[in-house]
Design a protein that fits this description.
Helix Hairpins; BirA Bifunctional Protein, domain 2; eight-stranded mixed β-sheet; three-stranded mixed β-sheet; 13 helices; 40% helix; ATP-binding; ATP binding; EC 6.1.1.11; nucleotide-binding; Ser-tRNA-synth_1_N
């Protein structure tokens, strides 16, 4: 979340940023509660001081005075408890409103919403087919790669069984992405698929409530994670780093679970919008300045592009608009791969589909998670105090959508599907069919 003092001191800037991001937060209520909290803290301290002074005077008081002082200490005890209860309620509401305020926004991020991202570049050539290309659902049916019907019976709509070569392709994609990340200095992890509510809220995910996209486990404070960003970020909660320990770069393999509430259509059919998929996530902790996190942001984006270039998949890079950033992100870039069989929204085949994203969250998550780094002076020597680190996250591979792009771009007229050369050592075949 944003720092409370920053919000109060720059309320106009925060309000303008909220409008730019399409977020409606009652800042006036927050500022009122902030003042009320200060008053209650002062009131509580004053009452406690009076309680202490009154109690100290009892032994020396006369019998009549002692009786009055004892009565007063009883009253003060109730007043202190009442003030403390009121303070707790005020702080809870204050934190709730504060948590709704999104991060500040990079000045270069475009204005607008979901469809207003700025295309920075297109890389690779779209395949030119001399035949009518199939979409990935048709290709999967043709080659027996995915079984949606059986999964609907066993688990429900939006789940799937991977079969035959698709299983080996998933393992190949994960292994390939992990090796690329490791070569780039990211430490590999296989993370838990569940996390406590504090881990989800600490990284900016809503574990409960009507608008949550999270599956929660009844009777516990555990939820299925939507991304390893949650577990990788929370694993360092409460940590204070030495300056030389940063940047810390992590890669996490996990399953991801999302309720994906909302409308479904032709553009999201099959593997595009599912409730469970495997992902290799990149996460980094950097020094507490925009230069350090900005460089890491560029490094993560570069690695994502390298992976999709090596896979031979045409893609484009988008600078995501302010209204589509999500609460924690200061700036976000998406990669969209060309998917020849995907509905373009007008019934025609061929459109771009999101396959990765990477976000610079500055100190927004670190403030919730209390992740810090010791300060240094201008000469790099230890100084008093700590700073909140910056955190970043990005997708190395989200397998379900990567499979869509691989299958649809690799299809041939004879019905076979070519496999990218970089994956062949991991899966053991160069084509399907």
């Amino acid at each position: 979340m944003l720092d409370l003092n920053t919000i109060a001191e720059h309320a106009d800037v925060v309000a303008a940023n909220n409008r730019r991001r399409g977020v409606d937060v009652d800042l006036s209520r927050l500022l009122h509660l902030r003042g009320k909290r200060s008053d209650l803290i002062q009131k509580t301290e004053t009452l406690k001081h009076e309680q202490k002074e009154t109690g100290a005077g009892i032994p020396q008081a006369s019998p009549e005075e002692r009786k009055a002082l004892i009565a007063r200490t009883g009253e003060l005890k109730k007043e202190v408890a009442a003030a403390a209860d009121e303070l707790t309620a005020v702080e809870a509401e204050l934190r709730e409103i504060q948590s709704l305020i999104p991060n500040l926004t990079h000045p270069d991020a475009p204005d607008g919403g979901e469809h207003d991202g700025r295309v920075l570049r297109e890389v690779g050539d779209k395949p030119q087919f001399d035949f009518e290309p199939l979409d990935h659902v048709e290709l999967c049916e043709k080659h027996g790669l995915v079984d949606f019907a059986s999964a609907a019976k066993t688990t429900g709509a939006g789940f799937y069984f991977l079969c035959r070569e698709a299983v080996l392709l998933e393992l190949a994609l994960v292994r390939y992405a992990v090796e690329k990340a490791t070569a780039a200095g990211f430490i590999p992890h296989v993370t838990p698929d569940l996390a406590r509510a504090e881990a989800l809220s600490g990284t900016g995910f809503n574990p409960r409530g009507e608008e949550t996209q999270i599956y929660s486990v009844a009777g516990t404070d555990l939820s299925l994670i939507a991304t390893a960003e949650i577990t990788l970020g929370a694993m360092k909660a409460g940590t204070t780093f030495e300056p030389h320990e940063l940047p810390l770069k992590l890669a996490g393999v996990s399953h991801c679970y999302r309720t994906e509430a909302g409308a479904y259509g032709k553009a999201t059919r099959g593997l595009y919008r599912v409730h469970q998929f495997t992902k290799v996530e990149l996460f980094a902790f950097t020094a507490a300045d925009l230069g350090a996190s900005g460089r890491m942001h560029a490094e993560i984006l570069s690695l994502e592009e390298e992976i999709f270039s090596d896979l031979g998949l045409p893609y484009r890079v988008l600078d995501i608009a302010a209204g589509d950033l999500g609460g924690p992100a200061y700036r976000k870039f998406d990669l969209e791969a060309w998917m020849p069989g995907r509905d373009d929204g007008s019934g025609n085949k061929g459109s771009w589909g999101e396959v990765t994203s990477c976000s610079d969250c500055t100190d927004y998550q670190a403030r919730r998670l209390d992740v810090r780094v010791k300060k240094t002076d201008a000469d790099g020597k230890p100084a008093k105090g700590t700073d909140l680190v910056h955190t970043l996250n990005g997708t190395a591979i989200a397998v379900s959508r990567a499979l869509i792009a691989l299958l649809e771009n690799g299809q041939r007229e004879d019905g076979t599907i070519a496999i990218p050369e970089v994956l062949q050592p991991y899966c053991g075949f160069d084509s399907i069919g």
